[in-house]
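Before any further analysis, we paired sequence with structure tokens, yielding the entry below:
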Amino acid sequence: MLEAGEHFFQQLDLREVEVEGADFAMEMAVEPRLTNPRGGLQGGLVATLADIVAGRAVFAVLSQDPADGPSTASAATSDLTVHYLAPLTVGPARGVAHVLRRGRTKVVVRVDIHDVGAGRLAAASTVTYTVLPPVES
């Protein structure tokens, strides 16, 4: 469904970007259809961006398991905290992920959300993922 453009994420105009020192980064356009009445990116979408960017960083870490080769483990969000610091009004919104800790059962990621056009940090997030075992066929 993602390839066909039928998934909600396809409607968000997400694109990967390179950010030096980041484990993963992605930008999302700030469009009028995505903003609240005051013109800021809707808070739920800021949280969604944080979760998507953190998840991509987690799956990159899980796929780099040197002991066993590529991992077939997956992960699920178990905790998401967002501190909204400033309205995200200009855009694009840039989520920058840093994996803070990768344990056997948990991965903790910090995601900073920047309003690139305004040149400011708009939100700071911590996302914890639970590592799930591979699904047996």
About this structure: Strands lie at 14-16, 24-28, 74-84, 93-102, 106-115, 120-132.
